[in-house]
Design brief:
Largest sheet: 5 strands, mixed
Number of helices: 9
Order of helices and strands: HEEHEHHEEHHHHH
Helix content: 40-55%
Structural class: alpha/beta
Amino acid sequence: MTHTENMDAPYHARGLRLAGVDEVGRGPLAGPVVACAVILDPDNIPEGLADSKKLSAKKRDALDLLIRETAHVSIAEATVEEIDQLNILQASMLAMRRAVDGLPIRPDHLLVDGNRLPEGLPCPASAIVKGDSLSQTIGAASIVAKKWRDDVMIKIAQHYPGYGWEKNAGYPTKCHKSALRDLGVTPHHRRSFKPVRDILYQE
């Protein structure tokens, strides 16, 4: 991840407090959307930071611990109810804003993964497409958010077995979709998502 340092380095070189923001869980049919904001210590950046999707679960777990030990971290969610009420994009923006607001210190600048910024941010910000591959701070946020959300889905799966959430994290896998048909819709399902809505309102 050599080129990633370049995106964060100019901010760190100017002594600016840089926060990376990312969200996980736009695509699943169940569970919350989770966002994380991270301010890395420029003098103590964990080795091997990358887009969470490109790391093994074992590597993510190890990095999650390192990030929490060395950085300022804030995690926030938007609930299934909020996703259904607002739509998934607005719910993602809400979770990201909550994560930023939850940071223990105020950043000077934010790098946000994606092509748009949440409203009402407390400082200047840049939207970075594929930011989790280009910025270490965003990469760190993606790792912590994914680990957190996977753990949430594993916990929920214990109360709602059969949907495979401990493995698929609520994404629309074959197993999840057939369980949706056979076992029905749970309180954790996003009713505004078509595969869930179709089952609720089938003739």
